[in-house]
Structure formats: structure tokens, C-alpha cells
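User: Predict the full complex structure for these chains.
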Amino acid sequence: MYSRYGWLGQLWRQVVVWLVIGFAVFPVIWIFSASLNPSDTIMGQALIPKNATFAHYVELFTSTDHPFGLWLWNSIKVAGISAALTVLLASLAAYAFSRFRFRGRREGLVAMLIVQMFPQMLAMVALYLLLLKLGQYVPWLGLNTHGGLILLYLGGGLGFNAWLMKGYFDTIPRSLEESAMMDGATAFQAFLRIILPLSRPILAVIFLLAFIGTYSDFLLANIMLTSRDQLTFAVGLRIFISGMYSTRWGAFSAASLVGALPIAVIFYLLKDQFVSGLTQGGVKG
Amino acid sequence: MKKALALLVALTLLASLAVGSAGALASTPGKLLIWCSEAQVPALKPMAAEFQKKYGVPVMVTEMGFGDIRPNLITKGPSGEGPDLIVGPHDWLGELVANGAVAPIDLTANEESLFTGTAIKAFTYNGKLYGMPYAVEAIGLIYNKKLVPHPPKTLDELMAVAKKLTDPAKKEYGFLYPLGDAYHAYPFLSADGHYFFRLTSKGFDAKDIGIAQMVPGARIIATLTQSGLVPKGSDYNTMASLFQSGKVGMIMTGPWQIDSIKKAGIDYGVAKLPTIDGRPATPFVGVQGFMMSAFSKNKLLAMQFLRDFVMTKEGQLAIHKVDPRIPALKSAFEAVSSDPDLKAFGESAADGIPMPAIPEMAAVWNAVQNALTAITNGQTDPVTAMKTADAQVRKAIAQGAKK
Amino acid sequence: MAHPISSPRPSRPGISFAGRPLALLAAAVILALGAWACVYLYLRGDRWIALILFLGLLATVYVFTSPRVYPLRYIWPGLVFFVLLVVYPIGYTVYSAFTNYGTGHMLSKSQAVQQLQSALYAPPDAKTFTFTAFGDPKGKIVFLLKGADGQLLLAQDGRVKPLSADDPQPVSKDGGQTYERLGDLPAIPPLKLIARLSQLQNQTFAYGESVLSISSLNQFSEMRHQYKYDPQRDVLTNLATGKEYRPKDGYYTSADGQTLSPGFTSRVGFYNFTRLFEDQAIRGPFTEVFIWTLVWATLTVVIQLVAGLALGLLMNDPYLKLRNFYRSVLILPYAIPAFISALVWTGLLNTDVGIINGILRHIIGFNIPWFQSPFWAKVALFLVNLWLGYPYMMLIILGALQSIPGELYEAARVDGATPGQIIRTITLPLLMTTIGPLLVGSFAFNFNNFNVIYLVTGGNPPMVGAQTPAGHTDILISYTYRLAFEGGQGNQLGFAAAISIVIFVIVAVISLIQFRFTRLAEEVSTDYV
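Assistant: Here is the predicted structure of the three-chain assembly.
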């Protein structure tokens, strides 16, 4: 649908994009401002605070009580593994829903989505008890372990992810798999060698969604993790802000921004994955 | 792009190898575990080391978000995943005791007399002592010495000074406080001797609710906002940031704000809250202390720790150094009473009443906060607002009491 | 687009391990491990878990061997996690909804009994004793107590008796100030005793009607048990007054209605539900809250969809310079914790001192009462939620756009369609088939988006005169959770569970109607009719 346009076309698009970026970044600038403020104020009166300092950033990486580097790594590790597994589980399920016809197929799809709408308020207690029990038998899947936490994250969003992926798979022509199966490939091999490579954009999107979802989660992680070295970034951050009034906004803002960087970087690294072989025809010079 | 994908996979695999396990941390016999928030960690760590050196008993100090300590003890304690001691304010007691999450501690009359009366009273619930206090706090009047050379002694003086300093166009204000916050509004609301719940010799009486009578205080609040002295958007963060930018004469808040004010380079002073209609203002007093988990397997050990470090002047001063509030141990308080900030906050606290710890308070915060917002927004008059809040609280308590 | 495949497919085999010894080995190992775990769990006493695991194993074996349910093999791994991590917690919530679980009722009955049973109190004229502990390395421990009157008592094996001539005699070098040995047993110095304190904390020694127990490193105290529990009759008796307490509504309760704290979790039938439906006060603001909830969820989805669509199309534009950089910047709101960004937004929108009103004042000449007027508070919520939520929409649209075959655009262009027409007739319909169901999901998510409301307005401005605290921007879930968590009795988790269920039913029904109405669940593919 896109065709080459002149400088005028480029101009108005750039103007629109920059307006949106202004909207997106405006609050972020103020968070940055707060992170430079030595006096822990969330909304300073000046964009560049009096006595502006990078002390909060220095503290992040030098504090012995709060090993932020380790926490950041924990988060990336937990989010990375659970996102990869989520993509795997969701794509398998989506393949079945897209390519096979069986009883209860549509109902199953709708049911998965609906069930996920259940308010999660009390789920925490149930999941806590689950890990408590599991940990008695399998210590590395118990409370205060990353294994257990990753396990818990695998349940989130299967319904949404499978839907999104199934919609994508549906648009991949069947003829591609059929010819492979003529040559003796099994359905599973066709899935692995044909469907998956063709679906990179949606796999990347779901990876990213799952990654961000688990990376920024603190509700579950906060209940499951207790010891200092096991904490994830979001849980570690909470130490600064859970007080009634004595909230350390400076350190919290600095940490929030540092924590957002890996996501932007991963998004940037995945940029090539968003271009699909299917749509190449849509680009015409 | 293949490379990026491969890199990702490799990273993930590598990472998965690093999935370590760490045993859950819980109260184990012969090992003390303390949950506290960030403020106390630097003081408790050396104590832990000293305790271990002295008795050969390891002490773990786990830092936790302040707001998470209470719910975590309630959910994790019964399953055996809790600590031996927690550090927190006395108004957690209502919920903790109702849930059987904390155990009473036994102090002799002599030992109790080492602490200030308010502190012991605050930690006494249903006639039993449930914690060893280490600090007392209440809000006071913090003022910018440049703008307000002499802090006002009465509310009328305060309004007069504030009027002179207020110029909304320049974002300059004479007096600010968090409008919608019932805790900060309490000195006003309690004007004329009114109360949320009546304080009797047995503690707070949840059946004697006096919110509807708090009209004089509510009128003060209405005057403050409608006369344009306190702007509508005055919440805690706004108050803090404006004061720190040097544009505000006086604010009403607690010692937790002092550190930030110092960092902002403001020449400040602290004064006792002004009198209201000739009577001293009564803020809520919060007391911080150590509470014993009912699920602790080391109650005697934990008591030993408390006796060695919290019931001693050195211990209280060590905590005071990193968490500068008013020490609850008399001898420690005397040692720091030359500090003018502490003295002023202490004087405010002396006239205050302990924050009610009874679980019924949960209903009050919500209803009164709504009333305050409605008054300051000008949505309704003080009489109706307080009457509504009173009815809401009564209803919530009656509803909850059915089961 | 594609050719129909005759069904059943030829490639729906049972599992054949021929030529795949590794797979066979793996399957065997997993099965063996599972079977072993079943037995182990059973022997350890976790019978229910053992049974569930066993049934799970059976089902797994069936799924992976029967050609009839071949498609299920793909769904199975995800389904197992789904059941464990989504369905089981829902089951737990449903169970809790029929209990009084919450403040005062957090413990199980046996835990509550145990606590009450071990509760001690000091009688009016309680005696105290100094003591010396004697013990051998094997752990045997004996205490020699000295009363205020100088009498010596021997505490061991749960009993206390006066020291008699038949007992091992204490040996003192300083005339009874301190003791070195008791018979053959050497004294344990207090510092050494510390390490053993935790084993001793629950030891009591019968002493007449009372018990003696260690109260500190140098003292034994006389204490009395407050309650005695009779397991046969399930009755707690107050030993001082003789009053009996029986379990009732989650508390041990006396005949005259006195209750003992802590209570315990007990079943309450439909109480939580009837309370929700019968409470007049709850119904008061319900209509307004419900309508606002619907408006909130619907408009939020529409706004975010429009924004996400526009951005998705722009960011998919291969001719747009710097688009990879833009994408990474535009994702930022999603990467920053909502906790801080929501608060920064409330600061920016602050009526009197906020930056946004500061700018607007120059343009329109007055302050917008962002959080004081119900209307503007709602506008503020939409604005903040747009900021928080558009990156998600942009992402999924970006992904879904990749699935639209280029030939379609090609053909349309050849037919002379304008870009607007192409978007309307090709992009949108095809996009909807992929993301349509997610819009329903997004609707449900925002229907229950407690966090945003809580962080941005807290439900304010308040509704004046409501019988129960409510605000103009409260949505159903924030409003009802207030009842459960900010009522008079602490956190009523059982009640919150009941609320969750009712709200879920409402959301589910609305979503199903949306599915029906929009035919979103209909198939995209033309393969099957």
C-alpha cells in the first residue's frame, strides 16, 4: 500500500511523528528531571532542577545494599526465558487452532480468551500456595527462585497470544505446507520449517509483549521473591516507593529510566524481524 | 536478522543455565530473621553482626518495601515463611493482632518505664504490649526562614502570614498541606476536641464515632481553600516540590520531609503546630517499633536481640542516626533533645493522640478523604460532607460486623 | 488463497518411535519420573496432588498416542500451564468466595486453636526464679531454679519439684551464688545457652496450677495457660473463668457472644453474594458507576485503536526515514513503570501548579479543573491511558499488518484505488480478523483496569451524598474493591472474591455478545465453509 512520495509527503509524516514523539516523551523528560533532582521530588518546579546531579544514577550502580545491576540482569533473564517459552507454547497452540479442524475448536479459542478476563485479585494467594507446595518437592521451582517465577509467567496471556498468532497463521497459504508434506514432511515438521520462519513478525511481537509484561511485573514477583540477590528490577524498585510519605523519587525515576533501556534496545534489535516475506509485494518502488 | 535471532536464542540458553535456586527464607530455629524497610537497614546490619559475634547466632536482615511488610507477614507467616521480627508503625497492630500474626512481648514494669508513655501506650493493644517502640513521630509546621522569620503560634496568625505571602500567579504560597489526606488534615479536623473514634482507657471505641461533629475543623479547611490560600491541587508531592523550590512559606508535614528539604538547600525551621481557637492542635502520633511474629520459632532469641539493641540507649541512637525520628527510649531522647527540629516535632507529638490501630480505621480513611475532597473542591458544605462521611463509616462498620 | 485439504489428514499419526530412539528414551524417562513422583507424593501424604498428577500423566499419554486427538498435542503443553496458572487460581477464588477469608480469618482452624492453646498469661502474683542450666553435649538439659525465698527447685521432663537429697546435688564454689555442676552435669554458661534458646522456647514445666517457662536469659517465670482445648467436643475453655467457646462463623464464640481472636477461615455459603446484591447502599451509585465503566472501556479501546492504527501504518512505512529509531522511542511509555508515569501525569495536569494548565492558561485564559470536575477528570483518564496503552496497540497492529499479502495491495492499486480506499477496504477488514478478538480482550482489560484509575484519580472527584464512598471516575472494580478492602473490617478477601466472580460474569457476557455481534470469532480463512 505504500508508494514512494516526495519531500512534501515525507515532511508531513515527519511532522506527525514528531508530534506523537513529543506526546510520548514529554512525561519521560519530567521523569528524567526528577531523576536529577537531589531532593527526591517527583514533580520539580523547573525542568532542570536546582543542584542537578547524577548522584541517583551513580547510586544505582554502586550501592552495595541495592545491587541494581544484578536485579536488572535477573529481570532480563527471567523475562527472556519466559518470553521465549511463551512464544513456543503459544505458537504450538495457535498452529493447531489454525490448521486443524476439530470439535470444540472455536469454543476453545473463545473460552481461553474469556477465561483470561477473570480479575486476578486473589490469584496471587493461590499461586503463592502453588509455589510453596512445589518448592517442597522441587526446590528450584519453589518460592524465592527464578525457576518458580518463570513457571508462573507461562500462564499469562496464552489466550491473547494464541489468538494473535492464529490470526497470522491463517493468512499463510496452505499450499506451502502441502507441498512440503507431499515430500514426506510431517505436520510438525511443516510447522517448524515453514510456518514458523514465515511468521517471524508476529513471533517477534509476541516475544516483545511477553518480555515487557514479565519484565515490568512486580505483583507476582514481589510476592514470590524475598532474598536480596533474587529480586527482579521491578521488585527492587519498590523498596523506594512503598513508604507512605518518605518516597525516594529521585532514585526511583533514575532506576525506571535505566530499566526502560533494555526494552528499547531489544525492540531496536528486533527491527528486522518485523518485515515479513509475505508482504514484500506491498512495497513497490 | 538470523544473527540477531541466534544471538537471542544463545543468550536465552545461557541465561537458563544461570537459573539458580535459593532456599526460601523463613524463621528457622537458631537463626534470627528480621524484615524491615530501607530506613532501618544501615542500623540493623551492624547490630546483626554484633549479635552473631556475641552469641554465635546468625541474624538476617531482609529489606522489604515498607507497605509490603504487613501483608507479607499475614500471608506468609501462617505458611511458615515469615520472619521473627518485623519493623513497622503501631497502627498495623489492629490487623496484625486480628489475624493472629504477632505475639505479645513481655516486659517488666521497670523495663516499660524506660520508654516514653505514648510509645508504650501506642503499642498496647487489647491490654497487651505487642511491640518494642523505637521512635515517635507527628507532623509539625515546617517553615522557610527567609519568608517566615517567626513561625506563627496560632491559626489566625498563620492565616495572616499566609495571606501576605500568597500570590498564585507567581506560584507563591504562604501555607500548603496535602488537602485530600485525612492524616495531614487531622489537626484541623480534631479542632474543638473532636475525634474519629473516642479514646477511652481501654483504647479506641469503634462504636463511638464522632466524624459528623468535626464541622469546626471542616470549616477551617473550607476557609483555607475558598479564600484561595491553599490551591485545589495541593497534594503531598505538590506541597513538597513547591516548598523545596523556595516558594512556600510554611507547610504542615512530618520529619520524613526534612532530609529532602535539606538537600534542596532551603533554610528551614520546624515549629510546633499552631493552636486552634486557643487549644493545642492534636495531630496523629505514629510510633515505630519492632513486633514479634506469632509464627516465630525464636521468640526468646528475638527478645534477647530487642533487649540488647532496642532497649539500650546506644541501639536507639544508632537507629536514630540513620532514621532520624524522635527516640522512644527516654535516655536516648534526652541525648538528642538539643536538636531543634526534633524538639519541635516532639512538642507537636506531645499534644497529639496515637493513630488508632483498630481495623475500623480502614473505613475512616476512605470516607473522610472523600469528604475532604468534596469540601476543598467546593462540591459540598462542611456539614453535609462530614455527615455523609460519618454515615458511610457507620454503615461500613455495621456491614463488616455482620459476619 | 489456498487449497482445501481433505480431512482427516493423512499426516495424523500416532507417535511412532521407529528410528527415533532418543525420543523414545525421553518419553520413557519422563513417564518413569512421573510415575515415581506419583508414588512418592502418595507416600508423603499429598494424596490429592498425587491423584491429579496421575490423571495428568494418563491424559498426556493419551493425547500423545491417540491419533484421534492429534491436534491436541500442539495445544497440550500450553493447556497444562493454562490450567495450572489460570484455571486453578480461578478455582481458588471461587472457593474463597464462599468463605470469610480475610482480616481476622486468615488462619486455618487448627492454627487458630494452636495459638489460643499456647497462649500464656502471668497470674496476679506470678513468681519469678533465677536459674542455672546444666547439660551434657548430647542435649539433655536440666534447670536448677532459685526462688525469691532462696528455695531450690529442679525443672526437668516437663515437671518442677523441690530439690531433695535423692537428686544430684549442685556444686558451688562461691557459696550458692553460681553453680558449676549438678551431680555430673556441667553448668551451661548463659552465652552458650543462647544458641539453644529456640529449642527451649516452647518448653513448659508444670508447677501446681501454673507452668514455669524461660522468660529471659536469666529468668524463669510462672505463667498460666489461658485456654484448654477439648478436641472431642471442639470446645475451648477459659481456664480462669471456666467459660466455654465453640466455633461459630469463623470465631470461637461463647454463649454470650464473646469471640476469641484470632479467628479462622470458615465457610459462609452465599453470604458474600447476598451481601453484594442486597446492600441498598451499593446499589445507590451502581448505575452511574456501571455506565461510566462501559463508556470508559469502550472509548479507551476506540481511542487506542485509532492511535495504534495510525502509528502502526506510519511505522510500517518503508519510506519513512528513521522509522526504526522512532519505533524504539515510541515504545518508551510501555517500558516505564506505570506507577511513576501516572504520577508524573497527575503532576503535569495539576490544576493550579501543573505545567499543562500553565501552558493552557496562556492560550485559553483559565485553568482546566482536571481533577475537580467529573468531566475533566474523565478526560484526564483517557489522556493518561492513551499514553500508557497506545504502544501495545501499535505493536500488535505492526505485527498483524505483516500478514496482509502484498498482492492484494498490488491488485487494488492496479484498479486505481486511492490510499484511503485501500486502508478502508483491504487493510482494516483483514486487520480486524487478526486483532478483533484482541480488541475484545482489551475491552475486558480496561473494564477492570483498576491500576490506572487508582493511580490517576483514585476515583475522585467524590460523589456527594453517596451512602457508600464512591467517586465519579470509579469503575466497577475500583468501586467494589473499596467495599472489600476499605470497609470497616480490614481486607475482606472472601467478599473481594465474590465481587471478582460477579464482575467476571458481567465482562464475560458482554464479551460474548461482542463476539456474536461482530462475528469476530468467524474464520478468516476461506478453506472451510
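Confidence is low (pLDDT under 50) at residues 1-11, 524-529 of chain C.
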